[in-house]
Design a protein that fits this description.
The chain has about 80 residues and is mostly helical. The protein has one domain (about 10-65). It is built from two helices and two strands. Helix 1 runs antiparallel to helix 2.
């Protein structure tokens, strides 16, 4: 991997991140709604958004440590780039 901090993501990486994030988001919503912190829907909605905020932060930090599907940004235009 290049020391460059600039990179492009492959389509497969972007799709994988998207699908895995939706799974995390659905599980977050399911957990909050199952626990039902309150009888008030607004309270549960706020809890889902706050927990989703932290879940997304952690999700992105984990994905930043995964180099699979990254193409160095300084790669020449002629370079063969995987899907």
């Amino acid at each position: 991997m290049s020391d460059s901090k600039h990179f492009t993501e492959t389509r497969v990486r972007s799709l994988t991140k998207t699908v895995s994030w939706r799974f995390v988001a659905v599980m977050n919503s399911f957990t909050i709604l199952t626990l039902s912190f309150s009888e008030r829907p607004l309270t549960n909605a706020i809890a889902m958004n706050i927990s989703g905020f932290f879940a997304f932060y952690i999700f992105e930090r984990v994905w930043n440590m995964i180099y699979w599907g990254r193409i160095p940004g300084d790669a020449p235009n002629e370079a063969i780039r995987p899907n």
